[in-house]
Amino acid sequence: MLNRVILIGRLTRDPELRYTPNGAAVCKFTLAINRKFNREETDFIDIVVWQKLAENCANYL
After folding, report:
1. Burial code of 22-56, b = ≥16 C-beta within 10 A, e = fewer?
2. How is 36-53 classified by DSSP, letter by letter?
3. pLDDT at 9 over 90
4. Cβ distance 49 to 17 under 8 Å?
5. Whole-angstrom distance, CA of residue 6 vs CA of residue 13
6. Is CATH 1.10.10.10 correct for 10-60?
7. What confidence score (pLDDT) does residue 58 get?
8. Largest CB tally within 10 Å, which of 11, 16, 31, 40?
């Protein structure tokens, strides 16, 4: 069973799509997410996705 997380934020730069030596797609990007309580702070979340989802993220984000 996999965990599912839904994040809403802003991309800090364009996603980076690469392929492993055996052909698996890997996409890396960072989301900036604002906190609305207490002080206005921003969290930066590093995201890594694989396979077809990686290709979709690279094409559509």
Report:
1. eeebbbebebeeeeeeeeeeeeeeebebeeeebbe
2. -SSS-EEEEEEEEEEHHH
3. yes
4. no
5. 19
6. no
7. 96
8. 31
C-alpha distances out from residue 10 to 24, 44, 46, 50, 51, Å: 26, 10, 12, 20, 22
pTM, entire model: 0.82
Q: Name residues whose C-beta falls within 8 Å of residue 43's C-beta, 6 or more positions apart in sequence.
A: 32, 33, 35
> Could you state, in order of their start, the residue ranges of all structural domains in the chain?
10-60
Distance in angstroms (rounded) separating the CA atoms of residues 33 and 8: 7
